[in-house]
Fold this sequence. Notes:
This protein is mainly α. The protein has four helices and two strands. The chain has a two-stranded antiparallel ribbon with strand order 1-2. α1 packs across α2 and α1 packs parallel to α4. Pfam families: DUF3046.
Amino acid sequence: MRLSDFWRLMDDEFGAGYSRTLATSLVLAEVGGVTAADALGKGVAPKKVWQAVCRIQDVPPERWLGRDVAPRES
């Protein structure tokens, strides 16, 4: 997962404004007891951080992959 995918998933699930607040305030024990933003800054894989956020926020597993995004037209 790319970092851009992480932020797209966060924005889609929590809203553009709240996702940034959540990423800088919610401490995730699963990734070392730091916030999502700190974990990403330390090089933790975005997928691992996203899954930690999903678990602690009780996001249903069927939404962990995000919404379907149509491919771009060439």
